[in-house]
Amino acid sequence: MIMKKIFITLALILSILPVYAQNENKASHFAWGLDLGSSIDMTGSEMTNINFSGFVGYKNDYFRALGIGTEFDIMTSNSSRSIPVYALMRTSFIPGHHLLFGDFRAGASFNSIYDFKSQTGLLASAGIGITLAKGKAFKSHLIVGYKYIARSNITVEDKVEEFGDLHYAFVSLGISF
């Protein structure tokens, strides 16, 4: 509940920044964006989720976004959740703005699995994005890709609960400014 309030507050604060940037005469290199998506668990661990993410960073002719972000993964079939925090790079690999781009993320995921103690694991993600619409101050996009989250086993009362790593296919719809 607290994380939800923080996310909404951050989104509201960041939503006024494009209005301020449009009033300046020089081009802004500040970038931020929000995404809504779903990740399908390919391991059979019942960890398919709905996710919300946001990032802040830098943009130029080579990078659509280079920054940091966080995501909230809410599992659809159980009470587990993950909160990945990552470095983000979106690029078309050549200067200029193109229809297709790569989306790459690396960082850590803070995992709460069922009612067990929380754990932290590696996060890696790669996707291909396509620009859907763009205006003077925004670009919308669709990204399809692969996401990996490492998980470790947990010992509870001398019993080891085994949790394998997660492999996801994901799709997200987003907007960046």
Order of H and E elements: HHEEEEEEEEEE
Q: Which regions have little confidence, pLDDT < 50, spanning 5+ residues? A: 19-26
Structure annotation, total helices? 2
The helix/strand class is mainly beta
What is the makeup of the main sheet? 8 strands, antiparallel, barrel
Strand % is over 45%
Mean pLDDT score, rounded?
Answer: 86
Shape: elongated
Instruction: Supply Rg.
Output: 17 Å
| Gap from first CA to last CA | 27 Å
Strand tally: 10
Helix content percent band: 10-25%
Strand order of the largest sheet: 1-2-3-4-5-6-7-10
Question: Summary?
Answer:
With 177 residues, the protein is mainly beta.
Give a written overview of the molecule.
By secondary structure, the chain is mainly beta. The protein contains 2 helices and 10 strands, in the order H-H-E-E-E-E-E-E-E-E-E-E. The protein has helices at residues 2-15, 17-22, and strands at residues 30-41, 49-58, 63-75, 81-91, 100-112, 119-134, 139-149, 154-156, 159-161, 166-176. It has an 8-stranded antiparallel β-barrel. Strands 8-9 form a two-stranded antiparallel ribbon. Residues 19-26 have low confidence and may be disordered.
